[in-house]
Amino acid sequence: MSLLLLGRWSDAERDRWLQLLQAELPAERFLLAPPTDPAEAAEVEAAIVANPEPGSLIGLPNLRLIQSVWAGVDRLLQDPTLPPEVPLSRMVDPAMNEAMVHTALWAVLSLHRHFFALARQQREGLWQQPEQRRAAEVNVLVLGLGELGGRVARALAAQGYAVSAWSTRPTEQAGLRCLAGEAALQAALAEADVVINLLPLTPATQQFFSAARLAQMRRGAALVNLARGAHVDEAALLQALASGQLGHAVLDVFAQEPLDPGHAFWQHPQVTVLPHCAAQTDARSAAAVVLANLRALREGRPLAHQVSRQRGY
User: Fold this and answer.
1) Residue of 289, 214, 206 whose CA lies nearest to 255
2) Staple partner for 2: which of 24, 29, 147, 157, CB 3.0–4.6 Å?
3) Torsion of CA 66, 67, 72, 73, to 10 degrees
4) Given 16, 102, 154, 276, which residue is catalytic?
5) Distance CA 31, CA 59 (A)
6) pLDDT, averaged in runs of 10, over the chain (313 residues)
7) Do domains 2-93+281-299 and 94-273 have the same CATH topology?
8) Coil, strand, or helix at residue 193?
9) d(CA 236, CA 241)
10) Residue spans of alpha helices (H) in the chain
11) How many CA atoms within 13 Å lie on the side-chain side of 232?
12) What residues contact residue 267 under an 8 Å CB cut-off, 6+ apart?
């Protein structure tokens, strides 16, 4: 049997994955393009993918696993040709989880201690000491209680912040104030100083931060979007910043990437732009996750991190 390695990545990224996987599976045959020969297509047992082009996974009659090397699978699920009967697993990379925690901590600390404003003061030559609040006086709302959201919420709580976590479905996690439901969301938005978005992107969360949602937030609060650009109505966000409804936005993801050089976000004094780097998959640790799922597949054990196609994550 063969393994198909396919994605929207550079040759160097592809070769890095190939090197890591071949080191552990030296006897395996790897294909780097969709097979065109029916006999070769019938040999493909699993596809290891990074948002491949739509239609790339059709015509593989013995495909038993689609393993994404990225945490988000929304683009994969938008492919109408994705074989519905084949299990799909997303990437839960320990190193990427740690990186996301670091980025969230940096963003909240920077907002809490006014470091973004102080950087502007330095450029303007201003010497003005800001208010210093205690961490327990800063209300942080984490949206999304999956692998990333739970870790981020716990890390912030460990630093003394007043953390609440909201998810679309009721859940409980030890040591966290967990919320669910529209009424609870509105109440939490009204009291949060910082809102961190780590929701999965589904049809229900598209444009989640609309003008109406932004108006529910505490006046002067900050939005930290580390999930997907499609969660945010960018025009509504700019309006909320202009009106003072929001005080600052830290954005790692955008509706169009790379962000257009002429986009208003680049030079906006109340926006911090990151080039989709808050938490990148680390191929070294992620390869071990892929290998573990391949072994589980072949040994008839349950697959890890399997996606529910109904929920979209």
Assistant:
1) 206
2) 29
3) 0
4) 276
5) 14
6) 94 95 96 96 98 96 97 93 96 96 98 97 97 97 96 98 96 93 97 98 96 98 98 98 98 97 98 97 95 97 95 89
7) yes
8) coil
9) 9
10) 11-24, 38-42, 74-77, 94-112, 115-124, 147-158, 182-191, 211-216, 234-243, 264-267, 283-299
11) 27
12) none
- The SS3 assignment for 216 reads helix
Which two three-digit tokens encode residue 144?
Answer: 């999304």
> Domain segments of the chain: what residues?
2-93+281-299, 94-273
What pLDDT, on the 0 to 100 scale, is given for residue 64?
98
**Which amino acid makes up residue 87?**
P
143-180 b/e (C-beta count within 10 Å ≥ 16 → b): bbbbbbbbbbbbbbbeeebbbbbbbbeebeeeebebbe
Least Cα distance to 108 among 55, 157, 39, 169 occurs for: 157
Task: State how far the Cα of 43 lies from the Cα of 20, in Å rounded to an integer.
Answer: 22
Strands of 246-251's sheet in order across: 177-180, 162-167, 139-143, 194-197, 221-225, 246-251, 271-273
Tokens representing residue 45 in the block: 């047992």
pLDDT of residue 3: 98
Cα-Cα-Cα-Cα torsion 7, 10, 16, 19, nearest 10 degrees, comes to 70
Fold of 94-273: Rossmann fold (3.40.50)
Please name the fold of domain 2-93+281-299. Answer: Rossmann fold (3.40.50)
Active-site residue, from 218, 228, 231, 248: 228
pLDDT of residue 216: 98
pLDDT at 97: 95
How many whole angstroms from its chain centre is CA 299?
Answer: 30
For this structure, is 284 an active site residue?
A: no
This prediction has a pTM of 0.93
